[in-house]
Write a structure and sequence with these properties.
Blueprint (H helix, E strand, L loop, with lengths): L5 H29 L3 H27 L10 H15 L4 H32 L3 H35 L3 H10 L1 H8 L2
């Protein structure tokens, strides 16, 4: 097929994004189940609901463009989902696994933000204001999801992963102070 206009390129990219979102609908529940942090699990489950709305919104975009909502396999999302699976299969402490899940989820969010920003701009250039407005809503949601993941990572997940202070080790370090004493004995 010849892609000979920005309109056609927009349609093809929307098919790719539609596939990406559908793949994410399958991946997010698995990521949420693997998360040990309740806050991270909740964030992933909430984003699953938001993603369902984004799929519906994409269908509205296709309708606004007078095109059928069809997916074209998004190989980039396949790769990002595969990376997330690899992280979740690692033998890691719960907090380190959570940090890895956040990293995988943020890669997805950044890919989606780049994709939605591009198609929103193309829709505007093509005079498709309704589609552009719908795409901007999703772009805003993806930015919020990324921000929430950053806040979770920075506020406690990454520091906990760095300190190695998971639930199983936190009781021993609280009761006997073994973490501090072991640090002194190594010097």
């Amino acid at each position: 097929m010849m892609i000979d206009s920005l309109n056609k390129l927009l349609e093809e990219e929307l098919k790719d994004i539609y596939s990406a979102e559908k793949q994410l609908l399958k991946a997010l529940p698995k990521m949420a189940r693997k998360a040990s942090s309740v806050e991270l699990r909740n964030a992933l489950e909430e984003h699953l609901e938001i993603t369902e709305g984004q799929v519906n919104r994409l269908e509205q975009v296709f309708e606004a463009l007078g095109k059928p909502a069809k997916a074209k396999t998004c190989k980039a999302m396949q790769g990002l989902v595969e990376e997330a699976k690899e992280i979740m299969e690692e033998d890691a402490t719960p907090s380190v696994l959570d940090a890895g899940i956040i990293a995988a989820a943020q890669k997805v969010e950044h890919y989606e933000m780049a994709s939605y920003g591009t198609v929103r701009t193309w829709a505007r250039l093509c005079g498709e204001e309704e589609a552009a407005g719908l795409l901007q809503q999703t772009l805003d949601e993806e930015g919020e999801a990324d921000k929430r993941l950053s806040e979770l990572a920075e506020s406690f997940v990454n520091p906990k992963a760095e300190s190695g202070n998971d639930e199983s080790s936190s009781s021993s370090s609280k009761s006997g102070g073994s973490k501090k004493s072991s640090g002194k004995s190594r010097r």
